[in-house]
Amino acid sequence: MVSLTFYGGANEIGGNKILLEDKDARIYLDFGESFDFGTDYFYEYLQPRAANGLEVYFEFGLVPKVPCLYSKKMLERTGLKHKKPDIDAVFISHSHSDHVNHLRFLDESIPVYMGHGTHRLLEIYHKLYPQFCDIGEHENLHFFKSGEKIKVKHLVIEPIHVEHSIPGAYGFIVHTSKGPIVYTGDLRLHGPQSSMTQEFITKAAAAKPYLMLSEGTRMGDEEEHNESEADIEKKIGGIIEKSKGIVFAYFSMSNVDRFMSVYHAAMKNGRRLVIDPKFAYILDNLKDKIPGLPDVMTDPAILVYYRLAKSCTYDEKDYFIHERKFMPKMVTYKEVAEWQKGLVMHMSFNKLVELVYIQPHDADYIYSSSEHFLEGEENKEEREVLENWMKHFGVKFHKAHCSGHASAADIAEIVRKIKPQVLVPIHTQNAEAFKKLHADVRVPEAGKKMEV
Ligand SMILES: [Zn+2]
Ligand SMILES: [Zn+2]
């Protein structure tokens, strides 16, 4: 008998943590953290200390109290005795926190499998943001490539690359004693690497799976216009073309496709792109993994912005060691203020103070990230602060974004092509919408085991 237990990812977007059991084999598909993790009990500076252990998480039922899974250190004050783990492996689809963040709690000896790119990204983010990105210690970390076949007891797991809003994303075909189970991870079909998702669909269909775990982030948004990454590049290009001043753009630093769109749009309009040293560090450390990514150190169109720091003299000691490498490409607020019309500058919320030094005129700001920030009640205060800054400096505000997830229409197409016998919606708040796509949809319940 094969079973699936949903410790995360059931009727919620993200937090995937799915236990697959088949005879004596037990593996997890992802080990992430829900986006609303702990929000009922923690707020701003009231936060648990992950490094101390799981006691606070168990108290509120935030992490399942499952034996033979967590490390000795994490269990120290919890009342749950540390025992030899009974999990054979954890397979990670990609490096987003809702798929990896609870790896830090695992027993060190449990084998963890992830793509080469995923590991590189996690290393980069750990270096830059150790308090937010920490997967903990793992004695058996394995890296896979697309198309490899990994044996875990009698199971064979086949990772196949897919396109998502972060590089190094995979879906899996798990060959079980009952037949193949397909796990989509997070994917999309409307970006520049959609051929990877197409390859995943072809291989998954050829496996003739009896079950598919399908992401459904955008299910229920059937009306939503499905702009492609190419459309976004065009839109950004149009805004830059019309702008009479500096163009600020905000987008996630891990969204390499978006970086390329902004970079190309800037180039087409004869502008240079200004990024901060952290962004430069990310690009510099991904360039050997991602063909076509510009080299920060040699590309004359990329400039690196150093903010005024402690000494106010741009002394290298003012900056982290990993930020210093890019000093030959340095611009300061003085150059940016002078060259406004010739620049596109990456500008995140927490760097808005730089506007005081730059004193932009006729500037535009492109918000090119998840629109939840612009709509959600929970972001109201932050949004108002952003609006105040825009108003104060007379900056025109624009939106240009497309999702990292497949549209409802694309999910329908994926289901139709892969043709699983059973469809299990995950990573969605609209599991019911899947019933229009398939005759045998089984909706998972959080924490419950599903015999399949
Ligand atoms: Zn996700
Ligand atoms: Zn994701």
Describe this structure in words.
The chain is of the alpha/beta class and 452 residues long. The protein has helices at 55-59, 72-75, 97-100, 116-128, 194-206, 229-242, 256-268, 277-286, 321-324, 333-338, 354-358, 372-375, 380-392, 408-418; strands spanning 2-8, 17-22, 25-29, 89-91, 112-115, 141-144, 150-152, 155-162, 169-176, 179-183, 211-215, 247-250, 272-275, 302-305, 330-331, 343-346, 364-367, 396-399, 422-426, 449-451. Helix content is 26%, strand content 20%. A 7-stranded mixed beta sheet has the order 6-5-4-3-2-1-20. Strand 13, helix 8 (277-286) and strand 14 (302-305) form a beta-alpha-beta unit. Helix 4 packs antiparallel against helix 8 (277-286) and helix 6 (229-242) packs parallel to helix 7 (256-268). The mean pLDDT is 95. The structure holds zinc ion (2 copies). One zinc ion is lined by residues 94, 96, 164, 186.
Walk me through the topology.
Layout: E1 2-8, E2 17-22, E3 25-29, H1 55-59, H2 72-75, E4 89-91, H3 97-100, E5 112-115, H4 116-128, E6 141-144, E7 150-152, E8 155-162, E9 169-176, E10 179-183, H5 194-206, E11 211-215, H6 229-242, E12 247-250, H7 256-268, E13 272-275, H8 277-286, E14 302-305, H9 321-324, E15 330-331, H10 333-338, E16 343-346, H11 354-358, E17 364-367, H12 372-375, H13 380-392, E18 396-399, H14 408-418, E19 422-426, E20 449-451
Parallel strand pairs: 3-4, 4-5, 5-6, 10-11, 11-19, 12-16, 12-17, 13-14, 13-16, 14-15, 17-18
Antiparallel strand pairs: 1-2, 1-20, 2-3, 7-8, 8-9, 9-10
Helix pairs in contact: 4-8, 6-7
This protein binds zinc ion (2 copies).
One zinc ion is lined by residues 94, 96, 164, 186.
